[in-house]
Amino acid sequence: MVTTNKDPVLAVFSLSGGNDFMNTVIPYTNPLYRDYRPTLAVAEDQVIPITDELAFHPAMGSLKKYWDEGKLAIILGVGYPHPSLSHFRSMDIWATCEPDELGLIGWLGSVIQEIDPKAENVLTGVNFGRGLPRSMAKDGVPVASVGDLSSYGLLTGIEETGQRDQALDLFGRMYSPVLGRGVVNDYIRRTGLEAMAGADILGTAPGKYSSTVEYGNSAVGGYLKDMVQVHNAGFGTRVLFTTAPYNIFDTHANQAVGHSNLLMDISTNIDCFMTDLREQHISDNVMLFFYSEFGRRAMDNGSGTDHGSGGVAFALGEHVKGGIYGEYPSLELGKLEDGGNLQHNVDFRCAYSTILERWMGMDAKPIVGGTYEQLDFL
User: Fold this and answer.
1) Whole-angstrom distance between the N-terminal and C-terminal Cα of the chain?
2) In the beta sheet, which residues pair with residue 324?
3) How many CB atoms within 10 Å of residue 123?
4) Can you give the pTM of this predicted structure?
5) Which domains does the chain have, with CATH numbers?
6) Helices (H) then strands (E): counts for the chain
7) pLDDT at residue 43 in the model
8) Which end of the chain is more exposed for a tag (fewer CB within 10 A), N or C?
9) With contact defined as beta carbons under 8 Å apart, do 236 and 120 qualify?
């Protein structure tokens, strides 16, 4: 396990919609890349080389310094056997580690429960965005979901402190134990009280934070900034999660401009996230893992790319051993899956197992559902 001065914190960022692997980490010296992508291939004089064969999309320039520092790991061809091309099914598989049946327990929910088995801290796991992500769902595990930390709280629209206290008291009595009402009411009561406690605590985070870093004006920028504020506040939060909204990486059409803008947004804001952590002197115990539920097809469709399989994932942090992990899937026609999809070379549960064992200090097997070869990025 990696040793840090404080408990390790895992930040996870899902690039929902199926990020185009081939135009993110580009095999720019492979002639098949340009043969397959007459519309979308990035010109060789525009890419950002990271090896003699691979390059970043030109919109990812702000991440290149972390590659140069040896703090950015790139996992090539990540996926799972018999891939699903459904967004929701594939997201579920990544969330629950159950590729063959419908899973009900999120892998991060299990992580949170392992850290805090008695649910003593309602902020051990925090989601930045609306709702409860499947990856964090597990019975008995409280998770706070924050849409906007600057206005977050329970009943914060009530200006008078006394009125708010009375409303909170009423809310608490609404969720107080009622004999004979059963498990459902118990769950509602517990969830309501957890939300009330978490809201008031999280609402104090912005007041503890001051930074010179200016994030991009997007949902992603807001979520990553809020992550730093919560980590900086010292609430004991160990799992931070967010996702790109609205499946925005689903680039079936108009991809050339759209995907470039998306990569610019996430790269710029991830750079802000890391820069901010360093400015606050709190980067030592944080690792960011970002991924997408699948990649896109090798051939473009004239305007965009359709759902594929093998994709790419990244790990970024002070203790990450930067480099390339896994092999780039072959572009040869005979080695593509049906429909022109890239083969996966690395099971995503290998990456999870590495993070769980070497970063979080946990037994990965019960969480990911088996033993998987670990990678050396930690």
Assistant:
1) 8
2) 74
3) 22
4) 0.90
5) 9-152+212-368 (3.40.720), 154-202 (no CATH)
6) 10, 12
7) 96
8) N
9) no
* CB count in 10 Å sphere of residue 260: 16
pLDDT digit string (tens) for 100-155?
Answer: 888 889 999 999 999 999 999 989 999 998 878 899 999 889 888 888 887 765 44
pLDDT, tens digit, 9 for 90 and up, residues 181-235:
444 445 444 554 565 567 678 888 999 999 999 999 999 999 999 999 999 999 9
Sequence-distant (6+) residues with CB within 8 A of 231 are 9, 237, 240, 277, 282, 286
* Contact status, residue 53 vs residue 284, Cβ threshold 8 Å: no
Q: Take residue 168 and report the two structure tokens written for it.
A: 């909170």
Cα separation, 352 vs 242, in Å, equals 17
Residue 150 is which amino acid? Answer: S
Distance CA 93, CA 88 (A): 9
Q: In the block, which residue shows the tokens 């200090």?
A: 361
Q: What is the DSSP string of 28-80?
A: TT-HHHHHH-TTTPPPTTTSEESSSS-EE-GGGGGGHHHHHHT-EEEEEEEE-
Handedness of CA 104, 106, 109, 114 (dihedral sign): positive
Residue 304 amino acid letter:
G
Q: How does DSSP classify residue 341? A: B
Q: Tokens 């597990």 label which residue?
A: 138
Q: Residue 86: which of 74, 102, 75 has the closest Cα?
A: 102
Residue type, 21: F
Report the SS3 class of residue 208.
helix
